[in-house]
Specification:
alpha+beta; elongated
Length: 900
């Protein structure tokens, strides 16, 4: 705290400096408000006697000019810093009402030649004073003390009382009072004055003065007013009293001086004034102090009105709103018209019942301030009932008589602050939990001192059981990695972030990998202050990375040995990287590069759309993609590719890459085609003789029955059944060859779906006596599809259900609507399917293996043919099954497939 204002304060300034203010009500000088410091500066440097009462306890201050009025062996120096009530015990009943009047906001007082006995020079003395009590304002503009400008007029009074005895005593009294004297003869306009007044006017002692010269020394704006006052005093009816305040200008140096003139006119028997004389008092400093106080008071009002926090002054037991600023109105959600110049609870009645009325009354009664923090408050704001949180202070204000009649309320809306605080706490807790869950260690490095604080996890990662010095942590880093750490720290000072990976050696000599990340924080001058960061044990990641490299190396060897081509597609840029074998599979030279989009140009048109849709579907659904399709090499030859792949995703689940392998299956396809050709020819050739044999067996059965050879007829019936089975197998073989060749015919029409279901069930119910086929059908209506092919699929599923549930008695057929599709499920309670076999049941020629192979004979083509038929209908087929409990085969097709 700068105490310069005390350095030139003379004896009283030295006295103030010598006092231990920390033991005083005002506290240390460093904590004094600026308004007190400013007021004391004016007081101590003034040559005019001045006294100050400050604060609620009315602490006493005075200057050297006032010091003589205290006499010797009296109140000086003891009352400096003393409470007024203790300092002025003998005159307290006289001055207390004046002080209370000023503190209550009343006008400044003026007392002239008032007798106020005081204790000085070892006794109570009669002392006369001319003084003014004015308010001393603090930063908020409210009266914080009383400023006393005074002159002891004891000598003047005594002198005036003895005026009739001695003119010398009168002159002495005038000099003691530092007053100018003047005497005007209205009849001659002759104006006489003492030397002090002439000095103020800038005239030599011997100068003669007339009224016009005296008036010309008055500033122009005051001149007419003074002249009018003189003329008024000369009128007999006025009583002759003359009092006026104005400004004079020194003719020599141009210095302005504010003076107060007081006089009395004397009249002859005719009522004509023949003399007007009086005194002139220099009140320049007094006016300056009063002006400063006035500005301080205005500043206090402005401070309240412009304060960023809500402020309001309440008066009386009804808490009348004397002054309120915009910030408070905003908190209350009211307009100035709704709030100002009315009782508080009339403006905000909803808050009276919340306990604030009781608190305000208690502050008014006890004079003890009340503080509230994070207080929930409910008000009607903008027509809506809102709850918010405030910090507030109820500060009592004393009136001039010491009574408390006003309260200053300071209020701050902290709702957003509390919400931010809560969010910060939540964020810190989430960060703490995330750090703990992720196994991260944390550190805080003071870059100025070189000291570092670490978490327990940090110590564990570096191989320490407890906190160690920074040097020990650095020493734990592998010698070959010290340069990595050093370069990372140097780079961090330039870019503000640190990142590096290095090895640490534990006490047991085991080596661990760590990753260090952090951020540097700077001061206002851009100097690095501290580094905050985390450390992670990445030993497993590094080991896994090394292992992955080895696996990739082995995989590359395996791919090369198996003639598998591999590729990786960047799904954002559509850039593709592929192996040399991939090039060979597409008939390309090793150095040829293709884009993702160019790759599709190799695929034959009938398959291109299906491949693109398959890849996109696998990416969206996160499933493995698989397909077989023909491509055309640059030499125009056709080759078949079998491809499989899967998308990779980032932490947010967004697809980033698609990785896959391809294999040239041209030879396999050619062998399969040869097989299909053979099966087709064989099936076709077998169909004619089997049909003939079936006809012969049926004729023979009828002939034998006519002859009465029942046994032989039964054998013919069995042979006919086996021929039916053989016919079915031949039919499946013919269908599969047509499916593979894409020659299976479809005839799409609108048909009643549930009627078709009912017809198939009714037909198959005759084939089994052991099972009941139950219908659980939802109304579907018309469906646009190939009725015969859908019937064939349903027949296959129900026939399989009958075959594979020999010990069950019930089979349930369900239908339902799912969006724009119809779903059909055939549920049995038979042997079920092992979970590892579910993905193969729709493969061509797949059959139940093991002991069941001969129990449930067949070629394994029915589900494959059904699957292909459903795909051709734009649908899908699937199975849910539990081994030993049964299976549920389902398919879904569009209700209204697009047709042209």
């Amino acid at each position: 705290m700068n105490r310069g204002f005390l350095s030139k304060g003379g004896e009283c300034g030295a006295l103030i400096r010598s006092i231990d203010w920390s033991k005083n009500y005002l506290g240390p000088v460093a904590e004094w408000p600026q308004s007190l410091l400013t007021t004391l500066s004016i007081l101590l440097n003034s040559k005019f006697p001045m006294f100050l009462y400050w604060g609620p306890e009315l602490i006493c201050f005075y200057n050297d000019a006032y010091r003589p009025s205290l006499g010797n062996n009296g109140k000086h120096p003891s009352i400096m810093g003393m409470r007024a009530e203790e300092a002025w015990v003998e005159i307290w009943p006289i001055i207390k009402p004046l002080i209370d009047q000023v503190l209550a906001g009343g006008e400044a007082t003026w007392s002239e030649d008032q007798l106020i006995p005081i204790f000085r020079n070892g006794q109570i003395e009669d002392v006369y004073w001319t003084f003014s009590y004015s308010p001393a304002h603090d930063e908020s503009g409210k009266p914080a003390g009383v400023y006393v400008t005074c002159t002891e007029t004891t000598q003047k009074v005594n002198t005036l009382q003895a005026l009739n005895d001695s003119n010398d005593k009168l002159e002495f009294a005038l000099n003691a009072a530092e007053l100018g004297t003047w005497d005007l003869n209205p009849l001659t306009n002759k104006f006489t004055a003492n030397n002090r007044l002439k000095r103020w006017f800038g005239l030599p002692p011997e100068a003669e003065i007339d009224l016009s010269l005296a008036l010309n020394s008055i500033i122009e704006k005051d001149r007419k007013r003074v002249n009018d006052a003189i003329l008024k005093a000369l009128e007999f009816s006025s009583g002759g009293n003359y009092i006026v305040q104005y400004t004079i200008v020194n003719a020599k140096n141009g210095k302005e001086r504010i003076v107060k003139a007081k006089g009395k006119a004397l009249y002859n028997e005719q009522g004509i004034a023949y003399r007007l004389n009086g005194t002139l008092q220099d009140i320049t400093e007094e006016i300056a102090v009063q002006q400063a106080f006035k500005e301080s008071e205005e500043n206090f009002r402005k401070l309240i009105l412009q304060a960023p926090v809500g402020m309001i002054i309440l008066k009386g037991e009804n808490f009348f709103v004397e002054l309120v600023n915009d910030a408070y109105l905003q908190i209350a959600g009211k307009t100035r018209k709704e709030f100002e110049n009315r009782p508080l609870w009339e403006a905000i009645p909803e808050s009276k019942t919340l306990g604030f009325d009781h608190i305000l009354k208690k502050v008014l009664q006890t004079g003890i301030a009340h503080y509230g923090n994070e207080q929930p408050t409910t008000l009607i704001r903008n027509g809506k009932k809102q709850t918010f949180f405030i910090n507030y202070v109820y500060e009592p204000l004393k009136d001039a008589d010491g009574t408390i009649n006003r309260i200053m309320v300071v209020s701050v809306d902290v709702t957003e602050m509390l919400e931010s605080k809560r969010k910060i706490q939540d964020a810190e807790e989430r960060a703490r939990l995330a750090t703990a869950a992720s196994g991260l260690g944390s550190f805080d490095l003071d870059l100025r001192k070189g000291t570092m604080t670490t978490s327990e996890r940090f110590d564990e990662i570096f191989g320490f059981k407890s906190h160690a010095s920074r040097a020990e942590y650095v020493k734990a880093i592998h010698p070959d990695d010290h340069i990595i750490r050093l370069n990372a720290h140097r780079r961090a000072l330039d870019i503000g972030h640190i990142y590096y990976e290095a090895r640490v050696i534990w006490e047991d000599q085991s080596i661990h990998w760590i990753r260090v990340e952090g951020k540097i924080y700077y001061d206002g001058d851009g100097k690095a202050l501290r580094m905050l960061g985390t450390v992670m044990d990445i030993t497993q990641q590094r080991n896994a990375k090394e292992e992955l490299i080895q696996i990739n190396q082995r995989l590359a060897i395996a791919l090369e040995a198996g003639s598998l081509g591999s590729y990786e597609i960047n799904l954002k840029t559509h850039q593709i990287r592929f192996s040399e074998q991939f090039n060979l599979n597409y008939g390309l030279l090793p150095n040829i590069k293709l884009s993702y989009d160019e790759l599709f140009n190799f695929i034959e048109d009938p398959f291109k759309t299906a491949v693109i849709e398959g890849i996109n579907s696998a990416i969206v659904n996160g499933k493995v993609y698989g397909a077989e399709y023909p491509i055309r090499w640059p030499d125009n030859s056709i080759h078949w590719i079998k491809e499989s792949g899967k998308a990779q995703y980032d932490e947010q689940g967004n697809p980033i890459t698609f990785i896959g392998v391809s294999f040239d299956i041209t030879e396999t396809k050619q062998l399969q085609q040869q097989k299909d050709d053979f099966i087709g020819i064989a099936s076709h050739e077998l169909k004619t003789p089997v049909t003939s044999i079936k006809a012969y067996s049926q004729v023979l059965e009828k002939i034998l029955l006519k002859k009465g050879d029942v046994m032989e007829a039964g054998l013919m019936r069995k042979m006919d059944a086996q021929l039916n089975r053989l016919t079915s197998l031949i039919g499946d073989l013919l269908d599969v060859t047509k499916v593979n060749a894409g020659k299976l015919q479809y005839n799409h029409t609108h048909f009643d779906f549930n009627e078709m279901i009912h017809f198939v069930i009714e037909d198959l119910q005759h084939t089994t006596e052991h099972h009941q086929i139950v219908e659980n059908l939802e109304e579907v209506g018309l469906v646009f599809a190939d009725k015969e092919r859908v019937s064939q699929v349903l027949t296959n599923l129900i026939t399989n259900a009958i075959k594979y549930s020999p010990n069950a008695e019930k089979i349930i057929v369900h239908t339902s609507i799912s969006g724009t599709n119809v779903e059909v499920c055939v549920e049995d309670f038979g042997i079920g399917i092992a979970s590892d076999k579910l993905n193969r049941v729709f493969e061509q020629f797949y059959r139940v293996s093991g002991n069941m192979q001969h129990t449930f004979p067949g070629l394994g083509l029915g589900l494959y043919i059904s699957s292909e038929m459903i795909k051709r209908e734009g649908g899908r087929i699937w199975v849910d099954s539990t081994e030993g409990q049964g299976s549920k085969f389902c398919f879904s097709i569009p209700i209204n497939r697009h047709h042209y």
